[in-house]
């Protein structure tokens, strides 16, 4: 008898194996596609983040140089009589008398700034930053009698620490209204930073660079 010829083709086991390989291949393809998309998403987010950082840095640089240019323009103006509501760093002149017995020390790093009330002939009392002593708390008093001084308008620095009960009293910033309250006096809102070479100046406070 003729032996029955085995049909050619895949047996059930072979078909199952082929199907498994196909499915695994599809899974690997899908997994690889997901990984590629994830990497692309991360790269896109990283690129956006870097662009934001660069833009912020450029904006900060532009603002810095603009402010510096504006400040320099104010510094170059001629002095005017003292008044409130002037631009910061405007040079002003004022005539009056110092009150050296009412000095206040402003602690800085290192050393101190000496702030002395100045009663103008027009009436208002203006705090004047006379600069930094070279020997800590040892410094020359402000001159007595009437003088005319030139200085720069500076804004008050709110939020000072409590005034230390010593003589001269001491705190950490020129908070004009805080000092007025602590010392039971009335001061103008802005204060003056005394210019180099003026009556009563010590080592002048730094100017904007």
User: DSSP helix count?
Assistant: 2
What is the β-strand count? 8
Strand order of the largest sheet: 2-4-5-8-6
Please tell me the total number of domains.
2
Average pLDDT score: 84
User: Structural class given helices, strands, pairing?
Assistant: alpha/beta
State which percent range the strand residues make up: 15-25%
For the termini, the CA-CA separation is 112 Å
What series of H and E elements makes up the topology? HEEEEEEEHE
Give the biggest sheet: 5 strands, mixed, barrel
Shape: elongated
The rounded Rg comes to 37 Å
Q: Please bin the fraction of helical residues.
A: 25-40%
In terms of per-residue confidence, which ranges show pLDDT below 50 for 5 or more consecutive residues? 1-8
List the helices and strands and how they pair.
Elements: H1 12-75, E1 80-81, E2 91-98, E3 104-107, E4 112-120, E5 125-131, E6 146-154, E7 170-171, H2 176-183, E8 191-194
Parallel strand pairs: 1-2, 3-7, 5-8
Antiparallel strand pairs: 2-4, 2-6, 3-4, 4-5, 6-8
Explain this structure to me?
The chain is of the alpha/beta class and 209 residues long. It folds into two domains: 38 residues; 115 residues. The protein has two helices and eight strands, in the order αβββββββαβ. It has a five-stranded mixed barrel with strand order 2-4-5-8-6. The relative contact order is 0.13. The N terminus is likely disordered.
Briefly say what this structure is.
The chain is an alpha/beta fold and 209 residues long. It contains two helices and eight strands.
